[in-house]
Every structure is written in structure tokens, then in C-alpha cells.
Amino acid sequence: MGCPECHGTVATAPRTDGIRVVTVGNPNTGKTTLINALAGSDLKVGNWPGTTVDRLEAQLRLSGGTVRLVDLPGAYSLNPTTPEEALAARELLAHPPDVVVNVVDAGNLERNLHLTLELAELGLPMVVALNLMDEAEAKGYTLDPAALERALGVPVVPLVASRGRGTDELLAALERARVPGLRLRYPGELDRAAARLADRIDHPAARWIALALLAGEEVPIELDGELLERARRLRAELERVGIDPYLEIENARYVRAHELAQTALLGSEPRLTLTDRVDRWVLHPLLGGPIFLLGMLLAFRFTFLFSTPWVDFIGAVQEVLAGWIAALPLPPLVASFFADGLVGGVGTVISFAPVLFFLYVALAFLETSGFLARAAFIADKMMLLAGLPGRAFIPLILGFGCNVPAVYSTRILTGRFDRLRVGLAIPFMSCSARLVVFTLFAAVFFPERAAWVVFGLYLLGMVVGLFTAWGLGRAAGQPASSGLMELPPYRLPTMQVVLKQAWARTRSFLEGAGGPILLAVLFVWLLLNLPPGDLEGSLYARVAGWLAPLFAPLGITDWRLLSALIPGFVAKEVVVGTLAVSYLGAEPTAALGFVQGLGQILATFWASLLTTLGAVPALFGLPQLAPPPPDAPTALQAALRASVAPAAALAYMVYVLLYTPCVATVTALKNEFGRFWAAVAVVYELILAWVLAWGVYRLALLWLGG
Amino acid sequence: MRRLSDLPEDTPARIRALRTPPLLRRRLLALGVRPGAEVRVVRRAPLGDPMEIAVGDTLIAIRHAEAAGVELEE
């Protein structure tokens, strides 16, 4: 280490032991890939505390000591327009890091350097990582990083993070990080006002803060009222002489960013890029639509073809465990508590893992590849009908698979209000669990038109969902949300990061929702088994008795149908299982030997593995459009037919479609939007389900007769 | 007055002013859509709206109604 004083006025180089480094950059600059290339297996993925924004962090052991590396969310500017940008700005100002690594897209210098100029005003030691050099080259740009380094006064390191090129140089450059020597000047009056204001701010980022205040921005740190008042007066003075501070500041930064980009650019021969060539097909006036639908279908099939074998495997393990418990010398009630309550509950929780994991993989792939933005572009006009941005299409479509990951995927939307609106619409998207109920009832009551009835239910859910989102927008008096977004270049995602992110999100769901789901299963078990003995005398049947007057107007009077709605809160497909038990009685669980059970587990594991591998060709095969034939016992079908009229059965299906989402979805809503909105969702859906089921019942009576 | 929403495809033009609501103006500025910048319409979506524009090296999707607030030089 040299002597710091020798550097004169230049800020001293930081020691690299124990320092905190943050990466900051525009969205789609390969920040995630870079941090993965730097950290490798030390990368930790989680959430920013109290938010739903992904947080990447790593401890790096370098020759100079340990460095804590934190990735800030992507930001175009520190004057935020999204929750992610607000978070990045708040972190930089409220917890200034020791070094800022500004990740810059070498193929889009001008716009990226705009942020660099803002960062330069924060007064923090900085290094510029000039990433995606390969893409810049493919675009026909020849760059001179050294010229940019001279102009900015901070180390500039060229990189291709996806291939690990330049990462060692970047780490070495951390020691040379310094506060940028460049000082951006603004038009006369504005610059003087900023200097006057900055003098009164005791913060390394005084200049940036002064400019933000003059632009009329809210600054995410505490400032005293006198200062804010002074800023307001100065801004009013500027506006009086015809200066729009916000526009002037942005303009000065862009003009300088343009000059800097020209300094760094040695030559340019524009070439057709991969993105240009792919978009010619993907966004083609005629082929664009079909390609878009095909892409969505592929993502959907990927998720379910890959996860179903593992959900089945978890079911098989549950059965074996139940068999082992049945072999123990336990009283029936205790055995049932362990087998149905505990094993059943834990199994329900774990069986979410495969679906969530593969859906997150598909989603991350869609997002980082650039396809998601194109899908949003194509779907935008349809979504505009509901006053939503095009991106809202993705969570809604995912909802047809499983509402839980769909709720979490609302994070791809930029505005908080849009996230909430879509979040509340999602439970109306009929998930695959509800299909189990529909196919059984449609086969029993409308054997001739089963497919149409199921299709109609899906459509009804979609309409109700979109209406909900639209209505909320209207009620809040919000103008139609913006369709503005960047269409990033096509890129292959880094598989390691995609898998890690998917696993981190899955794990965070299991940790957060595991408890509530388990409690719900145990609660339902208690209802079914207390007092022990006959099901008809249980609490479960008694609750159904209380509900009966409420459901009489819908034509549903059978206690067995009513009570099955309660376990439906745990997971909608449980409705069918519970109906079978209450109509036909429980089948006793056969006792299972230890070795025999182990053999069964291994055999199903092997079968699941083979099915997963076999799913790769099936992915590209023709989709099965007809709903699978119901495998419910025909005895149940006959019992159902005897107990309820077709019109009431239709009302029952509509009710199952729309009433309270399963406990996992409610937990997801709570995690994303808070307790209040989760409660609002449940109450709203219970009421709406009843009203619409009643309407459908009355209509069906006219049509089908009692 | 020429508006971005009426600009034919592949005809470069220069932006004169942003006459849009404040939040949209901030978003446009963040993406590099600013007075003085050159803009080009790349294509319109299969359903006619939104459209894809190029500003510098950035490709941006923008709705017709939003692009109507972007005033171009004659």
C-alpha cells in the first residue's frame, strides 16, 4: 500500500479488506451474470429485507482480503420510476458503500453513461465495468476503454462476463477505485443554484442531492426542513426565468454522456445484430402472434411436464409413509393423525416445490432471454382492454398452471399498483388443481358437452379476473398503465444463476408458506376426525349444516358437497378426495413392510426420473388438448348424480372456480401485498363466487330445468 | 405538429419536445427519449399497437397514445 497523502487531492484508494462493494447499472447490462462470474458458488440469492426485490450477495476472498459484494437492482436513473430504482438510490445514499462498480453495456454507451454521470456526483470511489464487449463488437463498435478511463478519472475495465473474461482485472481494479475526477457543469443559473444548495448539505453526495432537490425529486434520506424550503425557493426562481430544472439536468447529462461515448468510440460500422434478425420473425406482423402463443405453450408445458413426475413421486412417498404408520401398533385416531394430518400436510407443502421450481426456471429463462419483453409487446393491446400493461399477460397465464408462482411473478411489473391489481386477478385464473374438480363434475353431469363446460369455466374465470383488474384501476382513478419498456437484446441466460434464483425463490416460499399450509391441513384433519367415529357426526358435517341455509339458494343442499368446500381451502383438488371419502367411506390404508415400502419409493423415484427425461421430446410433441379422463371411481360418479341436480352442479363448479384461493395462494398474496390485501382478496372472492354461482344457477334452471 | 405516433417506419426524425404527463416524461427521459435525440420507428406490433422505436442503441416499446405526446421537429 502506498502512502495515501501522496495522492494529493485525489480521494485515497480504499483498502480492500472488509470493504463493501456494490454493483450498479442499467437493467439488462449483465449485472447478474457478472456477479455470478465473480462469486461462482459463493453467490447467495435472497430478498432485500422487507421487499420482494431479488438480492444477490457474495463474500469474495481476494489477495488483499475479504470483499462483500452486493448487487443493487437495475436502474436507469437514481431519480426512481420503479420500486427497484428507488431501492438502488436509497441504498447508495443511506448506506454508502466503499466502492461502486458501475456495470456499463459497451454496446449502449450513451444511455448507460447517463447513469455513470449521476453516480459520479455521489462522491463515492468508483470502477466502471465495461461489460458485453462481445456484443459491442458484433454491433460493429470499436471501443477505447483507456480513453473513457482518462475522461472519467476512474478505472475502466473491459469485460465479457458471460465468458469470465476481464473478471480478474475487475477485482484487481477495486484497489484503484477512486472518486471520479469529472465534474459535470449545468447551464449557468442552475449550476450556481446547485452549488449554493450543495454547500449546505453535509453528505458525500451533496451535489447529486442538491440537483435532485432542484429537479423537484424526493431524496431518500433525511434532510432538514429549512434546506427543503430553500431548495423549493431556488427551484421556483429558476422556473420563473423559464428554466425547467428536471429537463435541463437530464439534458446536460445526456449531452455529456454523448460526448463521452464519442470519446470512447474509435469506429463504428453498423451491422445487423442477432436481435435484429430474430425480431424480424418473432415480431413479424403475421407470424408474431403464432410464435408468441407457441412460446408461451412451450414454457407452460416445460413446467408441467417436468414437475408432474416429481409431484407424483412425493405422493408415492406419502403413501408409503402412511403404509408404514398403518403397520405400527397405534390406536386408529393417532395413526390417522400421523398419516393424514402430519404426513399429508408436509406432503402438501413439499409438492409445491417441483411446480414452483420449474416455473421459476421457465420464467427466469423467458425474462433474461429477452422473450418476455417481446411477449409483452405482442400482448400489450389485449391487456390494454383491462387497463393493464402487456407484461401482465405473463402472471395471468401462469395462473392457469398454479396461482402461487403467478402471484410471485407479478414482480415483473414495474408499478406497485399494477402488481396489486394483477395479484388480485390471478386467483380467478383456473389452476390445474381446479381442473380435477371440473373434469369429474362435467363428466358426471354434462357427459356430452364436458369439454365445453370446462372451457366455459376457464373463460368465466379469465373474464372475472380481467374485470377485477380493470375495476380496481377505475376505482382508484388511475389512468391506463404505461406500455413503455425497453426491448433488451436477446441473450442466453446463465444457467447457474437461473437455477440458483429458482431454488432461492422456491425455498423462500416453502419457509414462508410451509407453516400456514401445514396448519390448514391439520385443522381440516381435526374437523374430519373430531369427535372420533362416524364422519356424519363429525365437526366437519356439523359445519356443513351451518352453511346449508347459505347455499340453499344455489340449489346445493347435500352436506357432503358443502363440507368438501372446506378442505378445498387447503388445495382445490382435495375436494374430489374428500367427496370420495364422504360418499363412499374411507378406504383403510394397507399396512406396508419397511423393505417393501423402500422398494416402492426407489421404483417411483426411478420412474419419475425416466418420465422427466422423456419429457424433453414430449415438450415439442403435439399438446393434448382434450382434458384427461377422470380417474375417479365410477361409484362416486353415480353417488354424485343421485345427490344433486345438473343446474346445482354447474353452480357448484362456478363456486369452486371463484371462491377463496387455496391457503398457499393466500399466503403468497400476503407475502407480496400484505395482510390487508390478502384478506380483501378472500372476502371479495367468497362474495363474488356466491353471487355468480347464484346467477349461473338461476340461468341454468331456465335452461336445464330443476 | 409532427408526432412520433404518426411517424412512418424507418424514417429517422429528431425529437423537439415531450408533451406527456410527468411520470411518463421521466420514464421516457430515463430510456434516452429526450429532446434533441434522433428517433426511428422500427415496426408496429402485429395488433397495430404498441410500436417499437429505436433511440440510439436502445429499442423501446411505446403505445400509440404515449407516442402522441412526443413532438418531432419538422
Automatic annotation (TrEMBL), chain B:
InterPro entries reported in the protein's UniProt record: Fe-transptr_FeoA-like (IPR007167), FeoA (IPR052713), FeoA_core_dom (IPR038157), Transcriptional_repressor_C (IPR008988)
Molecular function as annotated in GO: transition metal ion binding
Alphabetized SMART domains for the sequence: FeoA (SM00899)
Keyword set includes Iron: yes
Keyword field contains Iron: yes
Keyword field: Iron
TM regions (residue ranges): none
Domain spans labelled Ferrous iron transporter FeoA-like: 2-74
The protein, known as: Ferrous iron transporter FeoA-like domain-containing protein
Organism listed in the record: Oceanithermus desulfurans NBRC 100063
